[in-house]
C-alpha cells in the first residue's frame, strides 16, 4: 500500500478535539467504548506506521484485545477491606456486561487460570466469536456517536467482521497513545466507581486501578524468578550483581501501559528508579534487541508460565515506535544515573536489521 502524508498539525488538533468530545459528549452505558479506544491505540502502535495510511482491523483482533483486558476483571474483586464484600465489578449500567459474563463462564469451565493457557484451548475460539460479535454489535456501532450526531472520524465498516481506521487516524493514535490511554483508563475507573451496584464491592478500596489494568504481583514474581535463572543474578543495565531486583519495563509502562513478557528485564531498584519513565540509551537498546533475538523462545516460555502476553515481534515493534516518537520530539535516553543522551538517527539504525 502506498504511503500517505502524515496528518497536518491542524488535522492532529482536530483529532484530539474529537477524542475529547467522545469522552465529554458520548453516552457511556458500559465500559466497552473505553476498551475499544485502548484496543485501537494499541493496535495502531503495533501494526500501524508513521505515515497517514489507513489500518484494516478485524473484529476478532479487537475481540482478542477485549478478552485480554477483561480477563482479570471477570474475577471477583474484594480483599476483606473495610465495608466491602467479594464480587465481580459491574461494568454496565444495566445487567452485567456480556463480555464479562462470557469470560467468567469460560473461566469457570476451564482448568488453569492464565490467559495464555486459555488461548490454546479449542473452546477459546467460541469465546472469541462471542466477544467479537458483542464488539461489532455494541461499541463499534456507537463509539462515534456523540453530541447528538454521528461523527465517523475514527473508522468505517468495510465488510462483515472488518473495520478500517481512516487515513491519519493510526498515525494520531500512535503519536497520542499515552494521552488516549490515560483518558480511557481514568474514565473507565470513574465509570465503575460511579455505578451504585459496585459500592459494596469497592468499600474503601484504593487499588482499583491496579486490579483493572496491572499485572498481578504473583505473575511479576514468577517473571522475576524466571529471568534470574535465564539471565543470571545481574542488573540488565549496570551489570552489577543483584541481591533484590525489580522487574522493569524496558519500554516504560508510562509510555506503553501493556505488560508483555519480552519487554521485561531485571534491574537494581536504584537503576529502575533512576531510569524511571525514560527510554534506555543505545547501548542498553542494542543489548535488549540482541537478547530479544537470542532468547525470545526462553523468555516466551517464562512469560507463558507467568500468565503474561507473549509476542516478541510486537515488543520489538513497540520499542521501534517508542524511539521513533522520542526522536521526533527531541527526547533523550537514559544511560546511567544522571546521564542521558539525545535520541538520534543512530537509534533508528538499531531497528534496520
UniProtKB/TrEMBL annotation:
SMART domains in the cross-refs: HNHc
Record's keyword annotation contains Lipid metabolism: no
HNH nuclease domain boundaries: 222-273
Keywords from the UniProt entry: Endonuclease, Hydrolase, Nuclease
Pfam family for this entry, one: HNH_4
Superkingdom to which the source organism belongs: Bacteria
InterPro entries the record matches: HNH_nuc
UniProt-recorded name of the protein: HNH endonuclease
Organism of origin: Massilia glaciei
Amino acid at each position: 500500500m502506498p504511503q500517505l502524508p502524515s496528518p497536518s498539525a491542524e488535522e492532529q488538533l482536530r483529532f484530539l478535539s474529537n477524542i475529547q468530545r467522545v469522552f465529554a459528549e458520548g453516552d457511556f452505558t458500559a465500559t466497552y467504548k473505553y476498551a475499544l479506544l485502548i484496543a485501537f491505540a494499541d493496535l495502531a502502535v503495533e501494526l500501524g506506521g508513521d505515515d497517514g495510511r489507513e489500518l484494516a482491523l478485524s473484529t476478532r483482533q479487537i475481540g482478542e484485545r477485549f478478552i485480554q483486558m477483561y480477563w482479570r476483571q471477570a474475577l471477583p474483586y474484594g480483599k476483606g477491606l473495610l465495608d466491602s464484600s467479594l464480587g465481580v465489578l459491574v461494568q454496565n449500567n444495566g445487567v452485567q456486561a456480556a463480555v464479562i459474563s462470557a469470560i467468567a463462564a469460560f473461566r469457570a469451565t476451564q482448568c488453569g487460570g492464565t490467559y495464555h493457557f486459555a488461548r490454546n484451548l479449542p473452546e477459546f475460539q467460541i469465546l472469541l466469536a462471542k466477544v467479537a460479535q458483542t464488539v461489532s454489535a455494541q461499541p463499534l456501532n456507537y463509539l462515534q456517536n456523540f453530541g447528538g450526531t454521528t461523527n465517523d472520524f475514527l473508522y468505517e465498516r468495510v465488510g462483515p467482521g472488518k473495520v478500517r481506521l481512516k487515513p491519519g487516524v493510526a498515525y494520531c493514535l500512535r503519536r497520542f497513545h499515552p494521552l488516549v490511554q490515560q483518558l480511557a483508563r481514568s474514565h473507565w475507573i470513574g465509570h465503575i466507581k460511579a455505578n451504585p451496584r459496585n459500592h459494596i464491592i469497592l468499600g474503601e478500596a484504593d487499588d482499583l486501578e491496579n486490579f483493572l489494568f496491572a499485572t498481578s504481583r504473583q505473575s511479576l514474581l514468577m517473571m522475576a524468578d524466571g529471568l534470574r535463572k535465564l539471565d543470571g543474578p545481574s542488573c540488565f543495565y549496570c551489570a552489577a550483581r543483584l541481591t533484590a531486583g525489580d522487574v522493569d519495563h524496558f519500554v516504560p509502562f508510562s509510555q506503553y501501559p501493556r505488560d508483555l513478557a519480552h519487554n521485561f528485564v531485571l534491574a537494581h531498584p536504584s537503576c529502575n528508579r533512576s531510569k524511571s519513565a525514560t527510554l534506555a540509551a543505545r547501548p542498553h537498546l542494542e543489548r535488549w534487541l540482541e537478547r530479544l533475538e537470542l532468547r525470545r523462545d526462553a523468555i516466551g516460555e517464562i512469560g507463558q508460565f507467568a500468565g503474561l502476553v507473549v509476542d516478541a515481534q510486537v515488543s520489538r515493534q513497540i520499542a521501534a515506535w517508542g524511539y521513533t516518537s522520542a526522536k521526533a520530539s527531541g527526547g533523550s535516553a537514559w544511560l546511567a544515573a544522571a546521564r542521558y543522551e539525545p535520541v538520534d538517527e543512530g537509534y533508528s539504525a538499531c531497528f534496520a536489521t
